[in-house]
Specification:
Chain A is an all-alpha fold. Chain A has 20 helices and two strands. Chain A is globular and about 75 Å long. Chain B contains six helices and no strands. The termini of chain B are far apart. Classes of the chains: A mainly alpha, B mainly alpha. The complex binds protoporphyrin IX containing FE (HEM) and copper (II) ion.
């Protein structure tokens, strides 16, 4: 049944061989040494400070939605950095390998990357940025904020939540290890049929790509179920649909998309795997395969996915604008309807990613109009935000700056999207860097919203604010980088430069590419500013402590409980009476009223099962990539056995007594009183 | 300041929950599981779409088509096995309402046996195809046929393991909230697999046989 492989295979090691380790690669080998040294250093430091038990008890086995969220965000930031380095390498190659006379080093004729290596880098860049940076960062924020915003103690399924995190971590580990063992796909982040077939890509790169994406897809589907169940089933008394904070609505709409669309990706990838592992003919260029079937299946997921990532970002902006405008959100109901409309329409537009397939004028027109329809709810949102700020009392702190930046980017990205939605234009610029500039503008909306949220919600999670000076420095450097990289990219798009070039034949484009390279350097500075921001803020944290309502003008429920949020979220669950509950209590002078007595709280226990399952899935993925069948069988068996074991064991949870709650609450209130002095 | 969309009087408003609000564990669980099944349904929908695209004449590339190797009555036996299995499970759940342990166990056992029968028929069918030299590598159309039917069979396989686990849990733990919740979710799972089978039987086997 299994396909015959070119190259070696043996029952013990599968396709693994020493020759798969790129120790002779002048870029990867030093990087590998650096990673090993770094890892030894980190592990050594943890051992030296005796933090292993702390790490295991407080973080690795936790089921607390806030800690899981923080870990999601850490994974997201690490992967964002990795993706950024990929981007930097792509830009450097394109700034260097221009024209027939450009020099070449490290075995490349032009520039410093061979075409195969370059292909792997841009493929990894896309997969990482969308699935392992943006998605975990957003999921992290949903995880932390949503349960508190609806007045719940935790997610509906805390254990499943931990499992989702460790699946994502396993996916991240799998793509990282592809750097040093074997190679990665060179077929772009979305893949093309039939180049990913075994015949044309005989290496393991495509397999790494398949299983990484499968793992993220699985984790995200499970996470989506959890968050939907949480929002629908776990709201505090009085938290009616009409009082739900807007970020919760955004999360809801996004996860409806996740739940329904990720299975399509899972199937699309599994069918590639069927082709590559079993010799099936789903997407082959002969024997009845259908190439465009793949492209359709992928984008049936792919377009909803881009809205899955942008809707939460919209939600974040909808929280930040009112807080720093000291006004309620303009048009709450229309905002909700717009989110739902976007989620719905996002299902009807996938074909705009391949108008050039040539499905004919009727099909193309239908999808063109459907695509443009998205502009209506999006426009509603933009106007709502503008009217929220209109005649508000604006505070331009850094969270607000990021949010306003996101608004501008959304405008540009939306308008260029509209241009692309016209088939006549699309035929001209499809697969040019104009498209690349369009979706980077859109994805930068998300990055801006995420950094706005980092500033905005950091005090809620950690109890102190981030340093304003470094935050602003980072913002302006980042924005300068954005302009310097993407304005020339739009121009090059119009000049006809196609995407994914490892060698740029047209020297007229060189100046633009150099400006973009300079822009990347500015981005690098903003990364350094971010590190400085974290360092300075943590150093000075005693000075920047905050109370429950960190900004003094915040509105939704998460600001009612202490900062940092106690692990049980609310000592007594709040009873909700208004849409912006905290603003309502503040305006009526009852925001400091505490519960008059406390009660026992029931909490779930920590569990090591989730992280072990994550580890086993990583092993399973690795074994699948290298076709080590006995290891596949073993890890799959272990996974099933562990799941069954856990279901027998169950989790009775534990009780925090009312007296303990009271003690912790007194302590938190005492701390808060000190800060306000 | 302007509206908070609240008409509650702040002076008398209840600020903290006094109702000992507890969410319902079983309904939260079954609701979440329902959503999982939704995603499972999407998974099958995608597979059906792929099958639809790959069931044109040219998809078989001149090789065998389902019309050549599908035996409708054989598959009808499979259908009966699966449906009776679901029925048996349902009878077991009826016994659950009366907290009748042996009734539940008998229901699960019958469901298990009939499910195994279904799977055995499927495996026999696949080995028969293999003996004819038909495999996923034959053509795109046959790939879609085999993958769709066998993904369904894999679901049934895991369902059978789950039934076994639940029999053990009913015997060792009795009807705890967790066990009852799992029995209900397993019931949903088992029903969905039967529903999917209806589509598989009609659109893949019967339609394939006739075209
Ligand atoms: C107003 C809404 C939008 C419209 C009208 C629109 C339109 C389009 C069109 C027509 C394309 C295909 C271009 C081509 O390949 O020829 C495209 C590509 C893309 N768009 Fe958008 N878009 C919109 C919003 C978004 C959003 C919100 C995101 C993500 C957050 C996004 C991300 C992407 C991505 C990732 C691609 C291309 C992926 C690739 O080819 O690698 N778009 N968009
Ligand atoms: Cu799209």
């Amino acid at each position: 049944m299994l396909v015959d492989l070119a190259g070696g295979w043996n029952p013990m090691w599968g396709r693994l061989a020493w020759s798969q380790i790129p120790y002779d690669n002048p870029i990867l080998a030093p990087l590998f040494v650096a990673v090993v040294v770094g890892a030894i250093l980190v592990l050594g430091l943890i051992t030296y400070y005796g933090k292993w038990t702390y790490l295991w008890k407080e973080w690795l086995t936790t089921v607390d939605h806030k800690k899981l969220g923080v870990m999601y965000i850490l994974i997201g930031l690490v992967m964002l950095f990795r993706g950024f380095i990929d981007g930097l390498m792509i830009r450097t190659q394109q700034a260097w390998a221009v024209g027939a006379h450009s020099s070449g080093v490290f075995g490349a004729t032009h520039g410093y990357l061979t075409p195969f290596h370059f292909g792997q880098i841009y493929s990894a860049h896309g997969v990482i940025m969308i699935l392992l940076a943006a998605t975990p960062l957003l999921v992290g924020f949903m995880n932390i904020i949503v349960p508190i915003q609806i007045g719940a103690r935790d997610m509906a399924y805390p254990y499943l939540n931990a499992l989702g995190l460790w699946l994502t971590a396993a996916a991240g580990a799998l793509i990282m290890i592809s750097l040093f063992v074997g190679d990665f796909a060179h077929n772009g982040w979305f893949g093309y049929a039939p180049i990913f077939e075994l015949q044309y890509s005989p290496g393991v790169g495509v397999d790494y790509w398949i299983w990484t994406m499968e793992l993220v897809a699985l984790g995200t589907t499970l996470g989506g179920i959890n968050i939907l169940a949480t929002i629908i089933k776990m709201r505090a008394p009085g938290m009616t649909w009409g009082r739900l904070p807007i970020f919760v609505w955004a999360t809801l709409s996004a996860n409806v998309i996740a739940l329904t669309s990720f299975p399509a990706l899972q199937v699309a990838l599994a069918l590639i795997a069927a082709d590559r592992y079993l010799g099936a003919h789903f997407f082959t260029a002969g024997l009845g395969g259908n190439l465009m079937l793949y492209t359709n299946l992928f984008w049936i997921w792919g377009h909803p996915e881009v809205y899955f990532v942008i809707l939460p970002a919209f939600g974040m902006m909808s929280e930040i604008f009112p807080t720093f405008s000291e006004k309620p959100l303009f048009g709450y109901i229309t905002m909700v309807l717009a989110s739902m409309a976007i989620a719905g329409v996002s299902w009807l537009v996938w074909l705009h990613h391949f108008f050039t397939m040539g499905a004919g004028p009727y099909v193309n027109s239908a999808f063109s109009v459907a695509t443009m329809l998205v502009g209506i709810p999006t426009g509603v949102k933009v106007f709502n935000w503008a009217f929220t700020m209109y005649r508000g009392r604006l505070t331009f702190n850094t969270a607000m700056l990021w949010a306003i930046g996101a608004l501008f980017l959304l405008l540009i990205g939306g308008l260029t999207g509209m241009m692309l939605a016209v088939p006549a234009i699309n035929y001209m610029v499809h697969n040019s860097v104009f498209v690349v500039a369009h979706f980077h503008t859109m994805l930068l909306v998300i990055v801006y919203a995420i950094f706005a949220s980092v500033i905005y919600w950091f005090p809620k999670v950690f109890g102190f604010k981030l340093d304003e000076f470094w935050a602003k420095t980072m913002f302006w450097l980042f924005s300068a980088g954005t302009v310097l990289v993407f304005v020339p990219m739009y121009m090059l798009g119009f000049m006809g430069m196609t995407r994914r070039l490892d060698y740029v034949f047209n020297t007229v484009w060189h100046p633009y590419l150099l400006v973009m390279e300079f822009g990347i350097a500015v981005y690098m500075l903003s990364v350094l500013a971010f590190v400085a921001l974290l360092y300075v803020s943590i150093r000075d944290h005693a000075k920047n402590q905050v109370g429950a309502d960190a900004w003094g003008t915040s509105r939704s429920l998460e600001w009612l409980t202490h900062s940092p949020v106690p692990f049980y979220n609310f000592a007594v669950l709040p009873h909700i009476s208004a849409r912006d509950e905290v603003a309502w209590r503040r305006d009526n002078g009852i925001d400091h009223v505490q519960p008059d007595h406390y009660e026992d709280i029931h909490m779930p226990n920590n569990t090591g099962v989730a992280i072990i399952l994550g580890g086993l899935t990583f092993v399973l993925g690795f074994a699948l990539v290298w076709r080590i069948w006995w290891l596949c069988a073993l890890s799959l068996l272990a996974i099933v056995a562990l799941v069954i074991y856990r279901s027998f064991k169950g989790d009775p949870g534990y009780i925090i007594t009312a007296a303990e709650v009271e003690k912790m609450e007194k302590e938190a209130l005492r701390r808060e009183a000190q800060i306000s002095k | 300041m302007s509206s908070h969309a609240s008409n509650v009087d702040p002076k008398t408003a209840e600020l903290w929950d006094k109702s000992h609000y507890q969410h319902d564990v079983i309904s939260t669980r079954t609701f979440g599981y329902f959503m999982y099944l939704l995603s499972d349904g999407m998974l099958f929908a995608t597979l059906f779409a792929a099958y639809g695209v790959l069931s044109y004449q040219h998809s078989y590339f001149g090789g065998p088509t389902p019309a050549d190797f599908v035996k409708p009555w054989y598959t009808f036996a499979q259908t009966m096995a699966l449906f009776l299995s679901v029925l048996a499970y349902g009878l077991g759940m009826n016994a659950l309402k009366h907290k009748n342990k042996s009734g539940v166990i008998n229901g699960l056992l019958a469901a298990l046996v009939l499910g195994v029968l279904f799977l055995a028929l499927d495996i026999h069918d696949m080995t028969h195809l293999a003996s004819l030299g038909i495999s996923v590598a034959t053509s795109g159309g046959v790939s879609a046929f085999i993958v769709l039917t066998q993904v369904h069979a894999t679901h049934v396989f895991f369902g059978l393991i789950w039934i076994l686990v639940m029999m053990a849990q009913v015997l060792t733990k009795g009807f705890t909230t967790e066990v009852v919740g799992r029995l209900l979710t397993l019931r949903m799972f088992w029903h969905l697999q039967a529903i999917i089978w209806v589509f598989v039987y009609v659109f893949v086997y019967l339609w394939g046989y006739m075209s």
